[in-house]
Amino acid sequence: MMAAATASQRGRGVTLIDHSERLAEKIRISGGGRCNFTNTQTTAERYLSRNPHFCKSALAQYSAQDFLDLVNRYQIPWHEKKLGQLFCDESAQDIIDMLKAECDLVGTEWRMGTAIATIHKTESGFRVDTAQESWQCESLIIATGGLSIPPIGATGFGYEVAKQFGLPITPLAAALVPLTFEPKDLFNELAGVSLDCDAWGGEGPHFRENVLFTHRGVSGPAILQISSYWQPGREIALDLLPGRDAHALFEDAKRSDALLPNVLSDWLPKRFAQAFCEAIVPIKPIKQYTPRELASVAERLHDWRVVPSGSQGYKKAEVTRGGVDTDALSSKTLMARKVPGLFFVGEVVDVTGWLGGYNFQWAWSSGWVAGQNA
């Protein structure tokens, strides 16, 4: 919609073809129904890509402030949560209605519930065929998203178009997704427990946010963030007492008759403290542990290494990591270097944002840039 609105407002005749019957389902369900539509801290460093510099041009051409200005122009009430995240006060539908209105300002044609059968390159551009009709066009923008959340219509269509025209695809994986553990693992006894952690996915930055234990493994913002960096078979590391010194805490409590889990429950959820201790040491009063044993427990508390068995996959992933290789696209226009008139924007491209509105901002920025150049 951003690409269509931008191109049509430049005077281009635009038809938006969508195989879904309902418009913008991913916007509708985002942010608990209130759409985390951008982030005030948007920078290229908040994105993953084989080429980490690729997104800079689009983000500079159409910034988070530019989108916020559009939201304000439509008088959509919004609020800021932690870490620069901006949400609608009322409903994600406000963002959908705004983008549709922008498309309709100069007559974008809509074809909802219309599946594309074939795309062909022609001398003057492209021919797009559906079961109902065909279009001839000079420019074609692929804004089809990735594989995440197939129940609302996600498919690999965009990747197939890229392959058809010889554009490489980087490896794809579910990202911003809960991680799973085998049924015998400690995590599965802790469903519903949440705690503040510093999490690391084996590479990339650390994220300090909540970790939520589920019946299948771990979720919560910190886990979703590190899942974008995690690779199957690798460890993740959790600091269970970020900003504290477990060694000093044990020093203060070492003469206590209290059992170790009870001491830890002053700092951690009681159910977690009990399960954690049972997994790593014999349970006894804290004063009975040797200094070496307490030092080992403290080390584990600050650097607990575990190996997930996998993730919950595209069904629960917020985005797809990987996509159309950025080497095949112009960072200034989003057009395929070897296929004039063919553009790729949003999630289908190998640009994946952090949790917190960054992926929507990439959609707005890349869509606007393609719309300006198509």
Report the oligomer. single chain
How many separate helices?
12
Look at the structure and name the CATH superfamily of the largest domain: FAD/NAD(P)-binding domain
- What overall geometry do the principal axes of the alpha carbons give? elongated
Low-pLDDT residue intervals, each spanning 5 or more residues:
none
CATH architecture of the largest domain: 3-Layer(bba) Sandwich
Give the CATH class of the largest domain: Alpha Beta
Number of strands: 21
Trace the largest sheet across and list its strands: 17-16-13-14-15-12-18
Percent of residues in β-strands? 15-25%
Helix content: 25-40%
Radius of gyration, taken over Cα atoms and rounded to an integer in Å: 24 Å
Kindly name the structural category. alpha+beta
- What is the CATH fold-level name of the largest domain? FAD/NAD(P)-binding domain
Mean pLDDT: 96
Number of domains: 2
Pfam family, one: HI0933_like_1st
Protein name: Flavoprotein, HI0933 family
Keywords: FAD, Flavoprotein
Cofactor: FAD
List its traits.
FAD/NAD(P)-binding domain; about 20% strand; three-stranded antiparallel sheet; 21 strands; seven-stranded antiparallel sheet; 2 domains; alpha+beta; Elongation Factor Tu (Ef-tu), domain 3; about 375 residues
Description of the molecule:
The radius of gyration is 24 Å and the shape is elongated. It is α+β, with helices and mostly antiparallel strands. The protein has two domains: 2-172 and 321-373, FAD/NAD(P)-binding domain (3-Layer(bba) Sandwich); 179-311, Translation factors (Elongation Factor Tu (Ef-tu), domain 3). The model has no long low-confidence stretch (mean pLDDT 96). β13 (194-200) and β14 form a beta hairpin. It has helices at 2-9, 25-29, 56-61, 64-73, 93-104, 157-164, 221-227, 246-253, 260-264, 270-280, 291-302, 358-373; strands at 15-18, 36-39, 47-48, 78-80, 85-88, 109-112, 116-121, 126-130, 134-137, 140-142, 173-175, 179-180, 194-200, 207-213, 217-219, 236-239, 304-306, 310-311, 319-321, 342-344, 352-353. The strands form seven sheets. A seven-stranded antiparallel sheet has the order 17-16-13-14-15-12-18. It contains twelve helices and 21 strands. Its cofactor is FAD. Pfam families: HI0933_like, HI0933_like_1st. This is Flavoprotein, HI0933 family. Residues 1-373 form the RsdA/BaiN/AoA(So)-like Rossmann fold-like domain.
